[in-house]
Amino acid sequence: MLDIRLVREKTDEVKRLLAQRRAGDEKKIDELLELDAERRRLLGEVEQLKALRNRVSKEIGLLMKEKRLEEAEDKKSQTRETGKKISEIDAQVAGIEDRRNDLLLNIPNTPHSSVPDGADESDNVTVREWGEKPVFEFEPKIHIDLCESLGLVDFARGAKLAGSGFPLYTGAGARLERALIQFMLDIHTSEHGYHEVQPPFMVNRDCMTGVGQFPKFVDQAYVVQEGEDTETFGKLCMIPTAEAPVANIHRDEILSENELPKYYCAYSPCFRAEAGAAGVGTRGLIRTHQFDKVELIKLVPPENSYDELESMVANAETILQRLGLHYRILHLCTGDMGFASAKTYDIEVWAPGQGQYLEVSSCSNCEDYQARRMNIRYKTGSGEKVLPHILNGSGTALARLFVALIESYQRSDGSVGVPQVLQSYMKTDLIGVS
RNA sequence: GGAGAGGUGGCUGAGCGGUUUAAAGCGACGGUUUGCUAAACCGUUGUAGGGCUAAUACCCCUACCGGGGGUUCGAAUCCCCCCCUCUCCGCCA
Q: What separation in angstroms does the CA of A111 have from each of A13, A51, A259, A292, A298?
């Protein structure tokens, strides 16, 4: 969330930046500041009363000790009134804080000054491209056909098991999925310095709130309960990304400066309800309710977080380069960025069968927006407590990568070549009709 | 799921209704002493919110002893609910 002090002191600047997102959030600022002012006014009032009560209570204690019971009783009955007032005002403050926090949690991050101003995805800026679209001497098939003919994914049976959007990977398809996961984890851990973790695949609400998924995007999550026990409903959610657990690893902690930067990478399945999303219900692997992903998370000092963002994107690019897949990097405009992000690059990989670029990675610097929600700080040498900047990036998402890969490496006879870097994982250089 | 034990500052650990503004020890930091190190001695040592300010300096106030409620003039301390850890039993991959 935003720093309430910054909102107080640089109100116009914050409004201007929020307006760039084209989401109307700047209108919430005035209401936020009204609540903030009222809260402080009431706090001043109630804290004075509490100071009074503390003083008098101490006096009562002394009177009791000296057996001056009548005087003590007098003071007790007086203070009873003070106590009533205190609980009244406390309740008001709590109500105001609830509303203030609710507003604060629903206001997105402000964009970094380098972010191109724009309304939607059509205003995103292509930063660079790598490789070239492969040329085929035949009409390349779409992944759905390849999956069917090669027995890589059984969409129909997946749908039988859990519904559409839950692919059942089979045979070489399952193996390819596993190979990609392992390949990516190996590179990030052994070459890029990330510390591998395997997080819980369900998290509590605090984690979801910490990364900015909740309260605003609660509809996108699968929320679970234990059996028929409705009491437990809503305590846990299936993770929409490993970012949810991994970014929260140090929630409510004060790290020491020399522990930074922290680099984490994690494989996890990702579960998304995709309520209301365009393209839900389309066949294939482009948009599913469950997909695999290798996620990268960094906690870094604010000074160099933007360098860290560039290197994180480069880490994700390495994967695509080793796989020999053509891709492009987009700098998302202000209107297309995620809720918590101050600056985001998307990586889109070319899928020749689809004839389109597919987003396989989104790398964001959330600056201190999440750290403030999660209450993560670190102590500098001079003893100052600072919110680290938190970055997250896909390195990369599967499913779409799987699509791009088999569509790019397909051959005229209907088989799919295995890129060299995956051959040791796949134990073969060719996926043929089984 | 059942039975029991427990959760107090960076750590150990006392306190179980009012000189606790959370004892004491350890650690850490600063200083004195010292040829150097060690030791000894002295001092400092949490977090958040609010007020005052140019100040994220000082000072003042409030809250915080796993979390949330309650009783009371007053709660680390008493009561209720929840969470977590440990030991044993049950069930289970």
A: 11, 43, 28, 29, 19
Distance A280 CA to B33 C1' (A): 77
Q: pLDDT > 70: what percent of chain A?
A: 98
pLDDT tens sequence across A346-390: 999 999 999 999 999 999 999 999 999 998 888 887 778 889 999
CA distance A146 to A131: 23
- Give the residue-averaged pLDDT of A64-73: 82
Report if CB A91 to strand B is under 7 Å: no
Residue A229 domain-assigned?
A: no
Asked whether strand B has any atom less than 7 Å from the CB of A255, the reply is no
CA of A301 to C1' of B69 (A): 40
How many domains does the structure of chain A reveal? 2
Per-residue pLDDT tens for A399-419?
999 999 999 999 999 999 999
What is the predicted pLDDT for the residue at A72? 84
Does some domain include residue A293? Answer: yes
Is residue A296 within 8 A of residue A194, CB to CB? The reply is: yes
Q: Give the domain range for residue A53.
A: 4-105
pLDDT at position A35 is 93
Distance A384 CA to B27 C1' (A): 20
Q: How far is the CA of A59 from the C1' of B18 (A)?
A: 9
CATH number at residue A173: 3.30.930.10
Q: Last residue of a domain, which of A55, A70, A105?
A: A105
> Do A355 and A301 reside in the same domain of the chain?
yes
For residue A427, CA distances in Å to A230, A260, A359, A402 come to 47, 39, 28, 17
Question: To which H or E segment does residue A290 belong?
Answer: strand A290-300
- Nearest to residue A354, comparing CAs of A419, A400, A319, A323? A400
Residue A281: what pLDDT? 58
- A53: CB within 7 A of chain B nucleic strand: yes
CATH number at residue A78: 1.10.287.40
Q: How far: A171 CA to B56 C1' (Å)?
A: 60
Q: Is the CB of A43 under 7 A from strand B?
A: yes
Q: Which nucleotides of B are covered by protein (CB under 7 A)?
A: 18-19, 47-51, 56, 61-63, 69, 72-74
Same domain, A167 and A196: yes
Q: What residue is closest to B17 (Cα–C1')?
A: A61
